[in-house]
Design goal:
Distance between the termini of chain A: 37 Å
Order of helices and strands of chain B: EEEEEEEEEEEE
Number of helices of chain B: 0
Number of strands of chain A: 11
Distance between the termini of chain B: 41 Å
Structural class of chain B: mainly beta
Oligomer: heterodimer
Radius of gyration of chain A: 13 Å
Strand content of chain B: over 45%
Largest interface: A-B, 25 and 22 residues
Order of helices and strands of chain A: EEEEEEEEEEE
Helix content of chain B: under 10%
Largest sheet of chain A: 7 strands, mixed
Largest sheet of chain B: 6 strands, mixed
Chain lengths: 114, 113
């Protein structure tokens, strides 16, 4: 049973560019959440997708957008990259059947903006 | 709005001694509480959770946590620390009104051989 997978592992971009990160949830999970983890910080919630729609959103600008596909996989897009967007981006999947279900995290994508 | 506080940036414990990593929380509704561990260059791994029921929750790798409603705390504990427990530990909270999970800033646990 594959866990949560993310691609790519590492990415280097230049300020102003756009980036797309990808996530495949754990088998059987239908909800995907994205987090940004800056160095030395805890994960910050970006948004959550369920049934191909954004269900929850954290305090992130509109430059951060996402998508969920019918197979539950998801993408995170960041436009007009800033140096401050450099971080580890984590994807987590869970079941939506009820609240309080733990999230399973992927290994993350390390984004460096130069 | 939910919030989580982990008051210690780092905790040092000798191998074989008991360990405690502290966490306090604030939520509007009934809390759902979680502990995760992160090893270097890895994603987060789920350790345990409290949803309802017994205040003492047992999880992976011999860890347990005690839910204290009056003190709004959910401290992580282990009776006998191992060097391999050295890692970054995160407490997280959501509530019954909102699936969004809020993480603390993390506590680095260092087990001394």
């Amino acid at each position: 049973d594959a866990g949560v997978t993310q691609s790519p592992t590492h990415l280097i971009k230049t300020r102003g560019q756009q980036v797309t990160l990808r996530c495949s949830p754990k088998s059987g999970h239908d909800t995907v959440s994205w987090y940004q983890q800056a160095l030395g910080q805890g994960p910050q919630f970006i948004f959550q997708y369920y049934e191909e729609e954004e269900r929850q959103r954290g305090n992130f600008p509109d430059r951060f957008s996402g998508h969920q596909f019918p197979n539950y996989s998801s993408e995170l897009n960041v436009n007009a990259l800033l140096l401050g967007d450099s971080a580890l981006y984590l994807c987590a999947s869970s079941l939506s059947l009820g609240q309080g279900y733990e999230q399973y995290f992927g290994p993350g994508t390390r984004l460096t903006v130069t | 709005a939910q919030s989580v506080a982990q008051p210690e940036d780092q905790v040092n414990v000798a191998e074989g001694n008991p360990l405690t990593v502290k966490c306090t929380y604030s939520v509007s509704g009934n809390p759902y509480l979680f502990w995760y561990v992160q090893y270097p260059n890895r994603g987060l791994q789920f350790l345990l959770k409290y949803i309802t029921g017994d205040n003492l929750v047992k999880g992976s790798y011999g860890f347990e946590a005690e839910f204290n409603k009056s003190q709004t705390s959910f401290h992580l504990k282990k009776p006998s620390a191992l060097v391999s427990d050295s890692a970054l530990y995160f407490c997280a909270v959501s509530d019954n009104r909102d699936d969004k999970i809020i993480f603390g800033k993390g506590t680095r646990l260092h087990i001394l051989p």
